[in-house]
Design brief:
By secondary structure, the chain is an alpha/beta fold. It is built from 6 helices and 13 strands. An 8-stranded mixed β-sheet has the order 7-8-9-6-10-11-12-13, with helices on one face.
C-alpha cells in the first residue's frame, strides 16, 4: 500500500470492481501496479494461473471474480501457496446471506437439505458447485457423494454428511439445463427440520430471497443491496488489515471436488 494515498491499492480492469473501488473511497484506490495491491482477477478461463500470476507479481491479496469450474488437472500443476488472502466472489453463495441463513436457524440442525438448480450449459457446473456449497453450509459438515447421475439434460446427486459424533444428514441436488446463453442461473434451497430454511437465488432476475420458518412463524431476511463484487473486495481489504485466515479457497475446492465427481458420472 502506498502511504501517500488512503486505503489499499486495487489492481483490476473488471468493471464491477472498478465500480466497487469507487464505492469504497476511504479504503480502496485503483492502481495499475499489482505489487503491494489487491488484485481482482476474472474467474473465466484458467483462473488458477491468473491467481498464481497475480501473487508472483507481488499482490498482497487476490479476489477471484465469479469463478467457473476448472478441470481437475488444471490445479495439479502448481499448488496455491496460501501465503496471501484469497477471496472468492460467489454471487450465488454470498457469505453474508449464508451467515443470515445459518444464524436464523439458531442452532437447530437440518434433517435434510435439497437443492434444485437450473442454468444454461455454459454456467451449469458453476451453479451446481454453489448448490453443493449451500448444502455444505446448512448441514455444517463435509458432503460425501452416495450416488450421482449425469445426462445431456441435467444432473442429480444423492449425498450424505456424516458428523464426527455419528448421525448424518442426507442431501440431494438436481440440476437442469436451461435455454439461453446468459451466464448465471437459478438456485433453490430447502433445509428441513424443526426450522425450515428456504433460499432462492435467481441471477438473471437479480433476486436473492431467504425465508426462515419456525413454530413462531415465518421471517423473511431483509434484502441486501451491496453488490457481490463490493462485498468480495471489502472482505479482501478486511483480510489484509486483520491478517485473519479466510477459508474461501478451501471451501471452493471442496465444492468443486463434488462437481468433478458428478462430472465423472456423465452418460449420454
Amino acid at each position: 500500500m502506498n502511504p501517500a494515498v488512503r486505503g489499499f491499492g486495487v489492481c483490476t480492469a473488471l468493471p464491477a470492481y472498478v465500480a466497487a473501488i469507487a464505492e469504497l473511497p476511504l479504503s480502496a484506490v485503483r492502481t495499475d501496479d499489482v505489487r503491494g495491491a489487491v488484485a481482482a482477477v476474472p474467474g473465466s478461463g484458467d483462473w488458477w494461473q491468473g491467481m498464481l500470476a497475480a501473487r508472483a507479481e507481488g499482490a498482497v491479496a487476490v479476489v477471484l471474480a465469479d469463478p467457473g469450474v476448472l478441470p481437475q488437472e488444471s490445479l495439479a500443476s502448481q499448488p496455491w501457496p496460501g501465503d496471501i488472502p484469497l477471496i472468492a466472489e460467489r454471487p450465488r453463495l454470498r457469505p453474508d446471506v449464508v451467515a443470515d441463513a445459518v444464524r436464523a436457524r439458531r442452532g437447530s440442525p437440518a434433517r435434510i437439505v435439497t437443492v434444485e438448480c437450473a442454468a444454461p450449459a455454459a454456467s451449469l457446473e458453476a451453479v451446481l458447485r454453489d448448490g453443493f456449497g449451500w448444502e455444505r453450509s446448512l448441514t455444517g459438515r463435509p458432503l460425501t457423494p452416495q450416488a450421482c447421475r449425469a445426462t445431456t439434460h441435467g444432473r442429480i446427486a444423492l449425498l450424505d454428511s456424516a458428523g464426527p459424533a455419528g448421525g448424518s444428514v442426507p442431501a440431494t441436488l438436481v440440476g437442469t439445463l436451461a435455454g439461453g446463453t446468459h451466464l448465471g442461473g437459478l438456485v433453490q434451497v430447502l433445509a428441513l427440520g424443526e426450522v425450515r430454511t428456504e433460499v432462492t437465488v435467481d441471477q438473471p432476475a437479480g433476486l436473492t430471497r431467504l425465508e426462515t420458518s419456525t413454530a413462531g412463524g415465518a421471517l423473511r431476511a431483509p434484502e441486501r443491496y451491496e453488490s457481490s463484487a463490493r462485498l468480495a473486495l471489502r472482505r479482501a481489504l478486511v483480510a489484509c488489515s486483520s491478517g485473519r485466515h479466510v477459508a474461501d479457497l478451501d471451501e471452493l475446492l471442496e465444492d468443486m471436488a463434488l462437481t468433478w465427481a458428478l462430472r465423472g458420472t456423465w452418460r449420454e
